[in-house]
Amino acid sequence: MNPQPFVEQLGKLFPYAEEIPEQFRIEPLHQRSFLVNGQMKPWNGTTHNVYSPIHIRTADGELVPQLIGSYPLAGEVEAMEALEAACAAYNNGRGLWPTMSVEERIQCVEHFTRLMIARKTEVVKLLMWEIGKSYADSVKEFDRTVEYIYNTIDALKDLDRSNSRFVIEQGIVGQIRRAPLGVVLCMGPFNYPLNETFTTLLPAIIMGNAVLFKPPKFGTLLHFPLLEAFKEAFPLGVVNTIYGRGNAVVPALMQSGKINVLTLIGSSRVADSLKKQHPKVNRLKAILGLDAKNAGIILENADMESAVKECILGSLSFNGQRCTAIKVIFVHRKIADRFLERFSEEVGKLKMGMPWIERVVLTPLPEPHKPAYLQECIEDAIAHGARVINPNGGTHFKSLFYPAVVYPVNSAMKLYREEQFGPVIPVIPFDDVEEPIRYLEESDHGQQVSIFGTDTDQIAHLIDPLVNQVCRVNINSQCQRGPDTFPFTGRKDSAEGTLSVSDALRSFSIRSLVATKLTEENKHIINAIVNEHKSKFLATRFIL
Fold first, then answer.
1. What mean pLDDT comes out for the span 441-462?
2. N or C: which end of the chain has fewer CB within 10 A?
3. pTM for the complete prediction?
4. CATH of the domain at 252
């Protein structure tokens, strides 16, 4: 099939308005308020229009982006107001929220979760329209986020139970618990704007911190239905939202020196810039999920069908727009032709279309400039000796981009090092397994790797050096974050700090203790405080 007719086919995947099923149609949401200091503050200033990556076909056949709403384009003044609200709520650790008992904070989070579940339909629909995520995956993201919150609550209960006892060592009695860190600036990503944002936001809140929350550029509106839930569930100033251009509102926050924790899931370049703006770097804790160029290594003895299946999932789930995606594939030269043939066949079976289409895999890309960048990467690879293996690979129209399998990729190409974050799959042949090992050793990234093979000696030979280059080695399976109880982090420029259900609780808190010499007078003091429930920190209450 020649390129032009396929381009036309892509164009025809965009619908007429009347072709959109009733349950998936959307009314524009024009947000004119935001949450600061426990109040929904009205906004009458400049706003930013939000256009969906889903284009709508007009009666005369033109395609126009669907306007799905707008949100406040606030500035530094509003950002600093939110910061002062958070600082007041934390009050140097003396505020209502940081001094509240763990059980009381859990009750607030449980109340929030019930309110959140009631807004599921709105959030899922906005998630689908804002970033082009399939309806099935949007539902999955919402449900997984709720599950994550409940798992976090259970993990905190377990942590608190283990800390509800006293420790006696060398004549000193003490109780060790976890205390909050202060004011947290939370910035989430566009690809999982609900789930990955909440995997930092909720642990930060539940551990007693006050939070400034800036929604991602793509995936902003979907948080609006939840602002009333935050307002109702938490004390004044515990959760505050920031809207506006990042470069206009965030620098002043960092330069104030009042941010105690920066949590960002995004690029290492942005993280480096923000950290350098803080005047007291030693006081700033950073919890970061950053760039990744995860590799798949397909050994000569790999089970071909399993490797192809997992690499399809790993490289093209949500169009490859995942930090955990397999973004480069090393395949042994002896099986490269067979792998490329089977991989291309399976790419050709993937359904492309609008997010509400049943079993759709390839959907519109939310970043307007992404197709041009991906095309640039392909052209650069071709100029350096590669070719697009699969039929129609790299064909694009508006926000739809058909996956391109590019081979053979070498070190002269952009695709060799740059994180493409989209449906372009670079494939590199190798003769000696030391080649992919050296690639990972020299890489700036160190999140995950996937090894595909059946020879236990060879797999073991790879595991031992690679666990010191990346933080997760997957055997015969795609790179992924879950299950959420597993640690999620990375080496080098890929992460700072560790996230997961239990690790996140520790990341957003610090061990503090109360201790005294074990004298009769001190025993009396401790017993009186505990038995009469005078302190919320020094206590032996057991949360069921």
1. 97
2. C
3. 0.95
4. 3.40.605.10
